[in-house]
Specification:
Layout: H1 5-35, H2 49-56, H3 62-71, H4 78-88, E1 95-97, E2 115-120, E3 123-128, H5 132-136, H6 142-149, H7 154-159, H8 176-192, H9 215-224, H10 227-236, E4 240-243, H11 244-251, H12 266-277, E5 284-286, E6 290-293, H13 296-347
Antiparallel strand pairs: 1-2, 2-3, 4-6, 5-6
């Protein structure tokens, strides 16, 4: 219920993670259909870039305003910080304050005068400005860092690298908000170079008890985790997609025309394979470089057929091996019998 600077930067990080989730899933998913030439009706979704810009913009962002208040000379208080926000962010559609120039919040009794409210992706959150300025200032004195760095204990020395005399910087240390913003930017840059997999965790109840599901709590999490938009895109689109070459390599054993070797383009081989299996045309689409399968049950059917075919092939290999082994043994016994018989007749 009481949110201060700590919760503000945590929610900022959540917004950035949600932004990269949108870019790598919803946006990328729909753009891939367009790139592959798949007929597609665009599905609208909320892009929270406008909220991230409200917080991190270098000129008019909340963190920039907070840093400016912490670094400017004169009397600086949490109230002056809120006053600056009311001037700079007054017209922003996701910022609310009783003292803002936007008159629509003047009569909002649920919003105290010493607070501001941000309409995050996951809902509205009210922040108390008390302590924002003090918590944003890095008040670790330089001589204290140097003293800690001179400690004999290796862990304490490692915790205060800024105390190293060789790295002394006479400039004012960066604020907590700017340090956190830089860390988040590094995290986002790192994530964008990876191929992340998302696991959305749903908390069924607040008691941490088994077999209890609070419907209101679960629905709230599903709505604000963005799962509904993701499900809409997935249902309207295709559950599975794969380049033609690995698809043909995996399932070519299901068709006599493509097994064991297909001579020709991979796409043509996949077309022959799907026609031979009798898969309905509405269940798949051919892109420029990938095959798109709409429903998971079609993929499950392919996997079941492949599993059965592998068992049949294993049985065939086993049969041929047993036949070869028995025939080899028979021929060896026959050869031995002839040798023994010839020596016996010579002796007789």
């Amino acid at each position: 219920q009481d949110n201060s600077f700590e919760q503000f930067i945590i929610n900022y990080c959540n917004e950035k993670l949600q932004q990269i989730f949108i870019e790598l899933t919803l946006k990328e998913e729909q753009e891939e259909y367009i790139r592959e030439g798949i007929e597609w009706t665009h599905i609208e979704y909320f892009n929270n870039a406008i909220i991230c810009d409200l917080i991190e913009n270098n000129q008019t962002g909340i963190l920039a305003m907070l840093d400016e208040e912490c670094l400017r000379p004169g009397t600086v208080t949490d109230d002056t910080f809120l006053e600056k926000l009311n001037q700079v962010c007054a017209t922003h559609q996701h910022f609310e304050s009783r003292l803002s120039k936007c008159s629509r919040f003047l009569n909002d009794t649920s919003l105290p005068h010493s607070c501001f409210r941000i309409q995050h992706y996951a809902g509205k959150v009210m922040y108390q400005v008390e302590g924002f300025v003090d918590k944003n200032n890095d008040l670790l004195y330089r001589d204290l860092s140097q003293a800690m760095w001179k400690a004999n204990h290796s862990l304490i020395k490692a915790l205060f690298p800024e105390g190293n005399p060789a790295k002394i910087n006479l400039k004012r240390p960066p604020t907590a908000g700017s340090q956190f913003k830089a860390s988040v930017a590094t995290l986002m840059k790192n994530l964008q170079t990876k191929n992340p997999n998302y696991i959305r965790c749903i908390k069924p109840n607040d008691k941490k008890a088994a077999h209890i599901f609070n419907e209101a709590l679960v629905c709230h999490q599903i709505r604000y985790l963005g799962l509904l938009e993701n499900v809409r895109v997935r249902r309207a689109g295709y559950a599975f997609r794969q380049p033609y070459e690995p698809c043909l390599e995996r399932y070519k054993m299901l068709c006599k025309q493509t097994w064991p070797h297909w001579r020709g383009p991979a796409r043509a081989g996949v077309e022959v394979l799907f026609n031979e299996l009798g898969i309905p045309e509405e269940e798949f689409s051919f892109g420029r470089s990938k095959i798109f399968i709409r429903n998971p049950r079609t993929l499950f059917k392919l996997e079941d057929l492949r599993k059965q075919r592998l068992e049949d092939l294993a049985t065939l290999i086993e049969k041929i091996y047993r036949g070869w082994k028995c025939r080899t043994h028979f021929l060896l016994m026959k050869k031995c019998q002839i040798v023994i018989a010839s020596w016996y007749r010579r002796y007789a």
